[in-house]
């Protein structure tokens, strides 16, 4: 039996109190927030960050994991499912690599693969979807590389630097993931 939520370079686990030192710094980084969040990139204080993460406790509609470096156990980002609709077996995936030194190294891709596999094989989801802003080209390439298909567009959804950008809806079905995993 394979080990769930652990890859070659990263593992997914719970968020611990000591992780908030790092997480707070990410939420104070407006550049990070411009790619991670769909609202204006206003840095958040410690109390606001705690409130955001408190929303994940005690609910069946959301789950969040720390993305950790396997060798150091350092938190490098967060990943999870939001807006889980159990009757339809649908969830919305989100990810953010907050630690800049771990970006563009394939670790986000590894984390996404682990979470997708968990979602389909353990949670029995039928569909995993996500939203991405049109200017986040590297994320779009990443999502497409693991099998997500662009299914829709919210035109001129967000304002950044006096310019309007669309938001894309991507989806991946369980059957598509299983077929890709055979290769």
Automatic annotation (TrEMBL):
Domain N-acetyltransferase, residue spans: 10-175
The keyword Cell wall biogenesis/degradation is annotated on this UniProt entry: no
SUPFAM superfamilies: Acyl-CoA N-acyltransferases (Nat)
GO molecular function: acyltransferase activity, transferring groups other than amino-acyl groups
One Pfam family in the UniProt entry: Acetyltransf_3
InterPro entries noted in UniProt: Acyl_CoA_acyltransferase, GNAT_dom
Protein name as it appears in the record: Spermidine N(1)-acetyltransferase
């Amino acid at each position: 039996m394979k080990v769930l939520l652990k890859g070659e370079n990263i593992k997914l686990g719970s968020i611990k109190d000591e992780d908030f030192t790092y997480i707070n710094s990410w939420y104070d980084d407006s550049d990070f927030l411009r790619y991670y969040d769909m609202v204006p990139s206003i840095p958040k204080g410690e109390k606001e960050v705690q409130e955001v993460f408190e929303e994940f406790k005690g609910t069946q509609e959301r789950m969040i994991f720390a993305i950790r470096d396997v060798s150091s156990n350092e938190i490098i980002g967060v990943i999870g499912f939001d807006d889980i609709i159990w009757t339809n077996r649908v969830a919305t995936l989100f990810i953010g690599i907050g630690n800049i030194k771990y970006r563009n190294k394939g670790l986000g891709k590894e984390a996404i693969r682990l979470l997708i596999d968990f979602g389909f094989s353990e949670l029995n989801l039928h569909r995993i979807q996500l939203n991405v802003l049109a200017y986040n080209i590297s994320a779009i390439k990443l999502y497409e590389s693991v099998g997500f298909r662009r299914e829709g567009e919210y035109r001129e959804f967000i304002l950044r630097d006096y310019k309007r950008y669309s938001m894309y809806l991507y989806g991946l079905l369980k059957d598509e993931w299983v077929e890709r995993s055979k290769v």
